[in-house]
Amino acid sequence: MTVVDAHHHVWDLSVRDQDWIADGSPIRRDFTVKDLLPEARAAGIDRTVLVQTVTVPEETPEFLALADEHALIAGVVGWTDLTRADVADELARLRELPGGRYLKGIRHQVQGEPDPQWLLRPDVRRGLTAVADAGLVYDLVVLPHQLPACTKAAAGLPHLTFVLDHLGKPPIASGALEPWTSDLRALAALPNTVCKLSGMVTEADPASWTIDDLRPYADVVLEAFGPDRLMFGSDWPVCTLAAAYGDVLDTARRLTGPSDHARIFGATATRVYDL
Q1: What is the pTM (predicted TM-score) of this model?
Q2: Are residues 104 and 76 in contact, defined by beta-carbon separation less than 8 angstroms?
Q3: Residue pair 165/158 in contact by the 8 Å Cβ criterion
Q4: Distances from the Cα of 101 to the Cαs of 68, 77, 98, 274, in angstroms?
Q5: Mean of the pLDDT values across residues 116-124?
Q6: In 88-219, which ranges are E strands?
């Protein structure tokens, strides 16, 4: 089967700062596609989806060019300002750039927005409608308390596919399951929602996590979304704060049943992102 890593990043600090990375962090250095290639090959990854990291307009064209250059990258989830009046024109412009055919989705750092209802603002909704009209999907990077707004947004835009990154960042380190479980199930009840099995090792205790710490959360999303709406993402290189690339993939396989692997590790991402 084709194995897809549906969520990873790259960055070059000489091009721009990644101000979300703390000083002294092991990942406060460059991570390039050339760094990823041997990791992906060793893990048996065939294709990937490259996901935005910062909210600047220059990054998405750079990522599209990388996808044009590297066969490993089959899709890009980029960023644009959803609130700009000409967002539809901007999405069309991005599609015309070198590598523009690899633009598959848009993401914004909603987790950093102080307004928990940010997704429901009229100007944001207008932008999300443009994303849907362009045939793209929308990745949700949110915190647990923002899940109810995600559900309202997805319910109001049934023609747009929403992809929840990192399970909505549940409090794995504390072991708490509620209200995250109830809120996640409400989102999963909508047919236009999908979830990434990603980001778990860094939401747990990075130094001491075990597969048993992760299993209750993986079980919830597998039950709620099912394997046809669940896809694997490594979250490389952020995952390296807690585990090596191959270990993240192996852990995800151990958390899911072999009969589901073809969908979770390939088919769902291929279909949702039109890879």
Answers
A1: 0.97
A2: yes
A3: no
A4: 9, 12, 8, 11
A5: 97
A6: 103-108, 137-140, 162-164, 193-197
Residue 1 has pLDDT above 90, yes or no: no
**For helices 245-254 and 211-225, angle between their N-to-C axes, nearest 10 degrees:** 60
Q: Phi/psi at 8 (nearest 5 deg)?
A: -150, 170
CA–CA gap between residue 270 and residue 263 (Å, rounded): 9
- The answer to whether 185 touches 221, Cβ cutoff 8 Å, is no
pLDDT recorded at residue 60: 98
Peptide bond into 179 cis (omega under 30): yes
Which residue in this structure is represented by tokens 């362009």? 134
| Ranges assigned E (strand) in 11-102 | 47-51, 73-78
What Å distances lie between residue 114 and 54, 143, 243, CA to CA?
17, 11, 30
d(CA 180, CA 211): 19
Asked if 178 and 170 count as a contact pair (C-beta separation under 8 A), the reply is no
**Nearest 5 degrees, angle CA 167-CA 27-CA 265?**
40
The 10s digit of each residue's pLDDT in 213-237 is 999 999 999 999 999 999 999 999 9
